[in-house]
Specification:
about 180 residues; binds iron/sulfur cluster; mainly alpha; 2 domains; two-stranded antiparallel sheet; elongated
Length: about 180
């Protein structure tokens, strides 16, 4: 069982490792890692992969003046959320899913949602070179994504707590949770 002391040591170790890689680490990143355990764990997982780390903490790229290393062509950035937003959306969706006790939509609801998404102009094939989509592919999520949130359509329609983000479809989007 993880004790409070273990958790503190883990936090210190991750922050120290990040500081060693980015000596000018900003206070805002440190306080985010202080408040958000999930972010801390994601940083720990991404520590050895600079591209993933940059997507998770875009401030690091700005600090290091490494924005030019971003893999996103400008045009794609206009059409889809940024890598950081897509990852953040996925993390938020995962939190809701966990909080619901891993509730899945009934099959008929899932099919209705899929039918709506398949005929929606925001249902797109993700560019494979985008970091966020490489990550979701690694997690086993392939296929089309919603252009508005960047989430996998299959995952989105399957998870009971998800909803369509298209506000033009009304208060609950084109389909609701
Ligand atoms: S979630 Fe909504 S906006 Fe996104 S593809 Fe499906 S119907 Fe379209």
């Amino acid at each position: 069982m993880e004790t409070e002391c273990d958790a503190t040591l883990f936090r210190v170790a991750i922050v120290d490792a990040l500081k060693a890689m980015h000596p000018s680490l900003s206070v805002s990143i440190l306080s985010r890692m202080e408040e958000d355990d999930l972010l801390l764990h994601h940083v720990a997982v991404c520590l050895e992969t600079p591209e993933f780390l940059a997507a998770l903490l875009p401030e690091l790229s700005a600090q290091s003046g490494r924005d030019s290393k971003s893999p996103d062509p400008a045009q794609e950035t206009k059409e889809l959320p940024s890598n950081a937003e897509i990852i953040q959306n996925a993390i938020s969706a995962a939190k809701r899913f966990l909080k619901s006790g891993l509730a899945l939509s009934p099959i008929d609801v899932r099919e209705q949602r899929l039918t709506v998404c398949k005929s929606c102009e925001h249902c797109v094939t993700p560019p494979r070179q985008r970091l966020a989509f490489k990550l979701t592919e690694t997690a086993g999520l392939k296929g089309p994504v919603c252009r508005l949130c960047g989430c996998s359509i299959h995952a989105k329609t399957m998870v009971a707590t998800e909803r369509c983000p298209d506000s033009s479809g009304g208060r609950y989007g084109r389909w609701s949770a």
